């Protein structure tokens, strides 16, 4: 029989432990990693699933189909999605301007991008609520043109964009900085207009990073609590987010109900992240880098 | 004399180009003619302005003063997209997210609809170019799956696809290892012979320039030192700079008188002093313009400091007075040990006014 001449870069290596390197200590570091991961992530999440599994699938379904819970879930995931999209677009623009142009105050703007990372979420929440309240600086202006921001899903959206923006900016920024000027010049010498160069040469390789930033902003938005609850007003069926509902259930000693909502959120979040990871894997393959 | 039939016409002319970056002048009043169909090597040390000149011709940079003419038409203000030049960068600058075929087709696809060949025609052209660069089976690969040499060939095919007026190569083999460089050199020459594409290529490697070019332009510090065929620049270097840049040479104290050049009282055969030059001069001697002889009949005497053999030749360093040792190249089989006294006869050399 002929020997398989499968190209090397496609051959799938059989799974095995990473070969030990010259540095000793693989065993201990691997064990330590698993231990920490278990204590901090796996065991709590497992406990959550166990707790809610006492309700059974039908019990979870019952909680989920409660209109108030369903509307909170819809708001949490729906608004997060929109906010992550918005943060991705604006974050991309911010990253582009920060890396491609030199202007006075650039470093300050660059530092300000990280503010939502650093600010305690409650502080951010109070600040946003102040600014967008009907008598706040921006809120009053919006009121004049008939837009209500505070105490509506729009308020939730604003808070989520605010906290998602740094993720969107920081994931694409290094890639924009790395864009090879010569690649753009090559495109120009081949006769492509500036616009064609931008769309066909500059932007496509950035897609995986944009998707990553989107995923992070989305996940953060779904889980966000502190910076949202002040501006949201938390009206049931209108501007109540799922994490808040969990807190409410807990304060009513409905531990099973809280766990059920949490499990549903966990499931949906897991599925979205999985989907986004698949998109990333596809785009990495498509764009030819590892 | 320019317009005589049979003489190759000028494809590109640059006139009085000057370019300053910040405060450093990079090109000074630079003139150069490139003939249609020739392979012109731009040779010069690092920082001499080669890349800048190439980028100005391509329209990627603009001169402070001077003009760029394409076939007699002023192209100085023409944007890069309209110049129809093919540019090959040292680090390939391929589009990583496109397959090899898409990279090559890029320039054709970028054309306005009216000028764009149809899909089948583009496919055919890409196929032809893949044959030319000997990568026929690689159409669907991505650049990350190619070796350096293969990437550079794709970059060349991509530039050729738009049938450029001139092909500009900036140190195209600079990032490749020695063996691949040699192969690609020969291959580039073959492609040039086959396509007759007017080509300017930049290098800081004398061997590469001398082996590959129809004519060589030697640059130094933003000035054109000399243009000529490889034979012309080697036989009659215009300046000491050109001479040194084209290969090893040592300076020997000499006296010019009556048209002759003498070292230690003995005339050096084959060297004619420039008219009117009298008195002490520097004679530049290549390693192979020395012959080892009996000390009594020699121009110079010294002792062997070291010697080594490589590719059938023996290179000997001869200690001679306080200056740098003389480098002598000898085909004689006899080996000289360190400390051995030798005499050197000079059989050629160069004197500059
Ligand atoms: N964009 C630039 N800005 C400032 N200085 C530059 C720029 N490009 C080139 N130079 C300077 O111009 C000189 C010539 O550069 P270059 O044309 O790249 O030389 P070469 O290609 O012969 O090595 C160098 O001293 C370099 O530092
Ligand atoms: Mg250069």
From TrEMBL, chain A:
Domain ABC transmembrane type-1: 73-276
InterPro entries named among the record's database cross-references: CysT_permease, MetI-like, MetI-like_sf, Sulph_transpt2
Cell cycle listed as a keyword: no
Compartment(s) where it occurs, according to its Swiss-Prot or TrEMBL record: Cell membrane
Gene3D superfamilies linked: MetI-like
Residue stretches spanning the membrane: 21-47, 75-99, 145-169, 201-219, 225-248, 255-279
SUBUNIT field: The complex is composed of two ATP-binding proteins (CysA), two transmembrane proteins (CysT and CysW) and a solute-binding protein (CysP).
The protein's name: Sulfate transport system permease protein CysT
From TrEMBL, chain B:
PANTHER family noted in UniProt: SPERMIDINE/PUTRESCINE IMPORT ATP-BINDING PROTEIN POTA, SPERMIDINE_PUTRESCINE IMPORT ATP-BINDING PROTEIN POTA
Pfam name, any one: ABC_tran
Record has Nucleotide-binding as a keyword: yes
Protein name per its UniProtKB record: Sulfate/thiosulfate import ATP-binding protein CysA
Residue ranges of domain ABC transporter in the record: 12-246
Family: Belongs to the ABC transporter superfamily.
Gene Ontology CC: ATP-binding cassette (ABC) transporter complex
Gene3D superfamilies linked: P-loop containing nucleotide triphosphate hydrolases
InterPro entries tied to this protein: AAA+_ATPase, ABC_SmlMolc_Importer, ABC_transporter-like_ATP-bd, ABC_transporter-like_CS, P-loop_NTPase, Sulph_transpt1
PROSITE patterns: ABC_TRANSPORTER_1 (PS00211), ABC_TRANSPORTER_2 (PS50893)
GO terms under biological process: quaternary ammonium group transport
Species for this entry: Methylobacterium gregans
NCBIfam families: 3a0106s01 (TIGR00968)
UniProtKB keywords: ATP-binding, Nucleotide-binding, Sulfate transport, Translocase, Transport
Lineage per the UniProt record: Bacteria, Pseudomonadati, Pseudomonadota, Alphaproteobacteria, Hyphomicrobiales
One Gene Ontology MF term: ABC-type sulfate transporter activity
